[in-house]
Description:
Elements: E1 4-6, H1 9-34, E2 38-44, E3 47-53, E4 59-64, H2 67-103, H3 111-122, E5 129-132, H4 136-144, E6 146-148, E7 157-162, H5 167-177, H6 181-186, E8 193-194, E9 201-203, E10 209-215, E11 225-226, E12 235-239, H7 242-246, E13 250-256, E14 262-268, H8 270-281, H9 288-308
Parallel strand pairs: 7-10, 10-12
Antiparallel strand pairs: 1-6, 2-3, 3-4, 5-7, 8-9, 9-10, 11-12, 13-14
Helix pairs in contact: 1-2, 4-9, 8-9
Amino acid sequence: MPGFIENNDSQKRQxxxxxxxxxxxxxxxxxxxxxxxxxxxxxxKGRTYLIRTSPKGTHKSLGPxxxxxxxxxxxFTERKTQIAQRLAAIEATFDEQRRLNRALRVxxxxxxxxxxxxxxxxxxxxEHFMVVGTHSLYAYESACGVRFTPSAMATRDIDLLxxxxxxxxxxxxxxxxDASFVGLLKKADKTFERLEDRKETVRNAxxxxxxxxxxxxxxxxxxxxxxSDGEDxxxxxxxxxxxxxxxxxxxxxxxxxxxxxxxxxxxxxxxxFARIKRKLAEYPARDPLKRSKDRLQAxxxxxxxxxxxxxxxxx
Length: 315
C-alpha cells in the first residue's frame, strides 16, 4: 500500500490555476518594486529639475527640465500607473484563488509556515535559506499532486538552513533594511521570541518553533555567527549535514496553507532529501523516535520518485 494518496481532479486543477496566478503576482510585484518612490519637478535656483524620490526619502536629480527629462517623467508615470492597475487586478484574482484553495482543501501546510516563508521573501532574503526536514515533504507532494501519510508529517517546528556562502550579501541586506531576523519573523507572527537557552530557536505563543542551522564552519565562515547585530537575535547552530544540503540541487515549489495562502518553498532535491534522511537514521546518537521517522520519510520520498518523478529516478 503506497504511503500517499492522490489528490482528486478538482484539487489538482485548482492547484495548477492557483500556481499560475501566484507566479504572475510575484512577477508583477517585482515590476512594482522597480517603480517604488516617484518623480517630481522641483524649482532650484530659478531652474526646474526632475527629481527621483525613493521610499526612504532620498532625492536624486535627473537633470534640468528638457525634452529628454520630460520623456523620462512621462514614461515613468505611465509605467507606474499601468503596473499599479495590473497589480490591483492580479491581487484580486489571487485572493479569489486563495478562497478556492481553502474551499477545495488544496493546502495542508500550516499557515504559520506560509507566513514565515512570505516574510522572508518580502524582505528579499528567501534565497539565503533552505527549508530542511519534515516540511520539505509539503513541497514534494505539492509538485506531484499527492498527500503523504499523516504520520510522516507531524511536527511543531521548521528548520531553516542559512547559506553561509552568501553571508556578505545577506548581512548587507540586513544592515540596509535595519532589521533583525527575529524582527522579520515578527511580521509573520508578532509573538515570536528567541529562546534564551537555545539561541538558534524562535518560538511563538502557540509553541511553534523556527530553528536556524548552518553548515559546520569552513572556508572562512565566522563562528559563532549571529544573523544581525541585534542583541536578542538568532545565532545559527552548526549541523553536520549542512554542507551536504547546500551542495544539493535546489528544489523550489509553491506550497499551500490550510487557509489557502500560498508561498514558494526552497528546499533540496528529493533524492538528496532521501539520502540525507537515511544517513541521519544511521547516526548512533540519533533519537530512536527521530530515527524511525527519518527512515519513513526517506522511504516515502523514494517511492514518490519512483512513481511520480521519473526525472530523479536515475539519481
